[in-house]
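Re: Re: C-alpha cell formats

Sure, here are both.
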Amino acid sequence: MYQALYRKYRPSAFSELIGQNHIKQTLLNALKSNKFTHAYMLTGPRGTGKTSIGKLFAKAINCEQLVNGEPCNECNQCKQIMNNSHPDILEIDAASNNGVEQIRDIREQVTYAPSVGKYKVYIIDEVHMLSIGAFNALLKTLEEPPKNVVFILATTDIHKVPVTIISRCQRFDFRRIGQKDLIERMKFVASNEELQIEEEALQLISMLAQGGMRDALSLLDQTVAFASGEITKNDVSEVVGRISIEKIEMCVQHLLTKNTTEILSLVNEVILNGKEPIYVLDDLIGYLRDLVIGKAFGVKEDNITTAIVNEHFNKLLKVADVSQMQHMIRKLTEIKQEMKFSNHAQISLEVGLIQLVSENQENHSLLKKITELENKIKELQYPQPQTTKTSKIESTPQNKINITDSNKTELNAALEEVNTVATKDYILNKVFPSASKKYKNVFLEKLPSVLNELLRINNSDELYAISKRLEKMSVAIASLSCVVIGADEMVIKTLSQEHIYRTLCKLMQKDISQFVEVKFITLDKWKPVAAQMMTALAEKKHA
C-alpha cells in the first residue's frame, strides 16, 4: 500500500528535523545529561513537528544504545516504537478521548511500572480539546507524577489550555518553518522519489504550506498524482484551485496602471475557469502585500508569502508606490468583507475593482490639480519683482492673475488639503508675535492623548508606528490659535493625509474656545527659524 510522503519521511533522528533548532538543542542537552522532566507542553502551528519531536523524545529516553542524545534506531525499543507496537508508548488523540473517564483510566495505568521500556510515555495530541473535568483529573497526576512516567502534551491552541496545566510542564513554542528549509526538504524528497519539479513550483508549494512541513509534503504528494511529467507551478495552482502566478502578476499590473477593461476581462476569465472570486481577492491582496514589504524592507524569502520573486516582480517593485498599494490593500479588504455577505460574490468583486481603479484615476487628477493650485498660490505670495526707472513712469504690474470666485473656492480647498507645512514667514509673522510658553505646554500635554485618539479612530499601521515614535515629536512653537509640531518627514507625510489631518485639527482644538490651526515643520527647517526668533528677541530686549 502506498505510504504518504509526510509519513514516509517523518524524521527518525533529531538530526533529520527541519527547523526548531532551539527545541532540538534543548532536548538533546537534556538527553545527554539524563536530566529531563516529567511533562512537556509542545505548542505551535500545525505541521511544524510537535508530534514528531514527541515520538523522537519517547524513543530516545527508552533507547538502549543512546549516542550523544540520538536514538540508535537499531535496538528492540527503537524498532518497536518505530513500528508503533511499543506497549509503553501510548499516543492519545484528545479530540476523540476528551472525557473524564479516559483521563481516569490513564491515572490508573500510570501507577503500573513500564512493561518493557525504561519509561512509560503518554503523548496526548490536541490536548486543548480535553474537557474542564478531564483537565482537573489530569492536574493531580501532573503535579505528583509516578516514577518512570513522562507526559508529552501537544496543542495548536495553547490559550485554551488552563494555566494550571501549563505551569506544571516545560513549554516549547514551535515556529513556522522557513520557506528556504521547506524547499530544501522537498528537493531531498523529490530526489529520493526521482521526481522532476520546477524551482518555482517548489516556491509556490512552500508559500501555500505557510510554514508547515506536513502541509508542504501533502501538497507535493497531491501534485505528483495530478501532474504528468515535470511538475510545474501551474500544476500546483490547478491542484489547490488557485490562480496561476502569471495571472496574479497581470492583475496587479493592470491595477497599478489603472486599466479597468483588462483587469475585468482577466478576472472574468479566471472565474469562468472555476476559480472562486474570494481566492482571486486573497491572491491580489497577498501579492500587493509582498510588494509593500519588498519595497519597505527589501526582498527576503521568508517575508514573501504569495508572489514569486522573478523578473516581473522586480519590475513591479521598481514602479510601485507604497502609499498607493497600502490604499489598495485596505480597499480590497473592504471588498472582501462585502463579499462575505453577498449572494453575488463575482459582482461585488467586479464593482469593487471598478471603484478602486476609478478612485486611483480621480486621485491622480486631484494631485495634478492641487500641484497647479500650489504653483498659483506661490505666484500670489511671491510676485516677480517689478523693474522701474528713475523717472516717474506708471509701472504695469507683471504676472497679474485674475481670480474668480470659483478660483477662490478651489484655492481654499487646496490650502486645506495641502498646506500643512509651516513656512518661515508663517512662523515669524503669524505664530511668533503671539506665541508663549504657556500655549506650548498646553499643546505639548495634549499631543500624546490626541495621537492615541487618532489611532483609535483610524487604526492604521502608519499611525501605530507614529505612536511608537512619540519621543521624536514635539511642539516647536504655539499661540492660542496656531500650533507648529516638529517631526520627521515620515510622520509629517502620514499626518498630512486629508482624513487624518482634519481629525487631528479637531482633536487639538478640543476643549479650546477657538479654532486651532495645526502645521508641521522638520528639525532641519526649524533650526534657522528658531535662531532668527532668538535674534529678534535679543534685539527687542536691547531696544
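Second one below.
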Amino acid sequence: MTTNFDPLIMISETSQLSQYVAQKLAKTGFEITEFDDKHGVVSIILFLYGRQSAKQSSFELLEKIQSSSLKINQLFLIRDEMTRYTSDEELRLQSVMKGSNSTIELVIRPHSILETNTEITGDKLVNQLLRHVVHPLSQSTSRKEIFVNETERIGVVGLGYVGLPVAVGFSEKHCVIGFDVDDKKIAKLKSGKDPSEQFSAEVLAQAQIEFTTDAKSLRNCACIVVAVPTPISASNEPDFSYLEAASQLIGENLAPETVVVYESTVYPGATEEICCPILENASNLKVGKDFFIGYSPERINPGDKEHTFKTIPKIIAGQSVYVTEWLYHLYQGVIEANVYKASSIKVAEAAKVVENTQRDINIAFMNELSRIFSQLEIPTKDVLEAAGTKWNFLPFTPGLVGGHCIGVDPYYLIHKSRLAGYEPNLLTSAREVNESMVDHITNTVMQQIIQHQFSFNDLKITLLGATFKENIGDMRNSKALSILEKLLHLGLSVQLCDPHVDSGTVKDMYGISSTPFPELEKADIVIITVPHNVFDWGQLNNVLKEKSIVLDIKSAVPSSYIPDNTVHWHL
C-alpha cells in the first residue's frame, strides 16, 4: 500500500492484522484478555489519519472485530500528533455485539495523512500507533484487571526519608531501580544499612531494589518517581536546585513513553513550569506526546510506624485524564489506603502545601496562646485540656516547628502568592510566630537563671534531643540545634544527649558530642527539646541537681516524674 493510506482500511483488511496489532500493544504493558460479558461496554477509541470515506470502512472494521476472536477489555487512546480536532469533526459509531449485552464503541477522527510513497507494513503501522498510545483506560470496575504490568521497572530518584519508603513500597510488585547521587548512601543500602533508620537489613535484602548511582539504569523504567529535597534558601525563598538537577539527570536518560512522577513538595505550577522544560530540553522529547508527567505529593511521616507509604491515602494527578488513570492503577497496586485522583497537577501540588501550612498555622496559634497565658499565669496545658472537651476542638499543642516540611512548605506558597500579587499575611505571621519560639525558649532559660540566682560559672545545662522531631535521626532545620547554638553563643556550659544522632556529626557542627544518658553530668537546667521514646523519664532524677529546673517544651514528662524541689516549666 502506498500514497494516502488509510490505517483504518488497513486494519480492517484482515483479522490477522488486527490480532497482530493487539499483540504488539499488549507487549507494551497493556493487558488484552478474553472478553467478559459482565464488563459491559468495551471502547476502542482510535484517533486515526483517514479521509471522510473511512466511515464505510469503520463498519467493515467492526464486522472484522466481531467476526474475529479479538476481544479487548481496555480502552486505547491513539492521538493524532499533526492536527487538533473539534468535537464536530468526531465520528462516533456503535455496534452491539450479537449474542451479548456488550457494546463496542469506535471513535474516529478523520483527517488526511501526509502523502508518502513508503509501503506501510504491519510493523510500521504498529510503531505509528504505539507512538500515540497515551494510556489504557478500563471500562470495567473490576479491581482484578491488570493495567500496569508488574514486570515493568519503576525508578526512584532520591533515596532519603521519602524516596526509600517509596522504593520499598513499589518493590513489592515491581523491580525497582533506586538511584541516588550519594555513593556512600548507596554503598550502605547495598550492605543492608538504612542511613535513615527506617528499614531493617532483612527488609532491604528482600526488596526487589537495584541500588545504583548509574543514571543510565533509569532508561529501562516505565515510570520514574522523583523524591528529592525541596528546601528553602537563607532568605526563605524556594530552592529548586535539587529538583532541577534531578530533572536534568532524568531528561538525559529519559526513554520515550516514560511517565515521570514528582513527589517533592513544590508550589502550584512548579512541576509544569520548572521541571517539564528541563526534561524536554535534556531529552529532546515532547511532554504529552513522547513522555508524560504526573504529581503525587509525598506524605511520609518519618518515625511513624502506623502511617506509612502503604497506609496513608495517596493523591495522584497526571497531565491528562489518561495519565491520571495510569498513575491511579500504578499506585493502587501498592497502596492499601485510598488513592485519590486530583483534578490537575496544580491541585495536587496545592493540596500538599496546604496540608503542612495548615499545621504551621495551627501550631502558631497554640504558641501564641502559650505566650499569652504565660503572661496571665495560666497553665496552657490545662486550658487546652478543658477546651478539648468540645467535640469540634482541634487538638493542637504548642511547640517547636522545624524539619523539611512544616517549617519549609509555607514559604513555597508564600512565594507563589506574592508572584501572583497577593500578600499572604496570615501565612507570614504564622511563620514569624513559630520562628520566634527559639528566641522565646532561650530568653526563658536566661530568665530562669536570673530568677533562681544560678551562678554562671558553675551552671550546667542539658539538652535532651537534637533532631527536628521525635524518634528519628534527621537534624535538618532542627530548632533544638538552634537553641543549642544560641546557648553556646551565650557562653553557657551545655551537654547534649540524643541517641538517634551521629555524635561525630554534632561535634563537627557545634564542638560538642552527644553524651549517652547514663553518662550525663547532673545539671541545673534540663531542656527537653525532643522527647524521644527512648528517654526513660523515671531516670530523669539521676541527671538533675538537688535544686533544678526542667524546661519541658512539649509537656512530655508526667508531673509524677518531677522531683519536689524541681521547677517544671512548659509552654
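The two ends are 81 Å apart (CA to CA). The mean pLDDT is 80.
- S.
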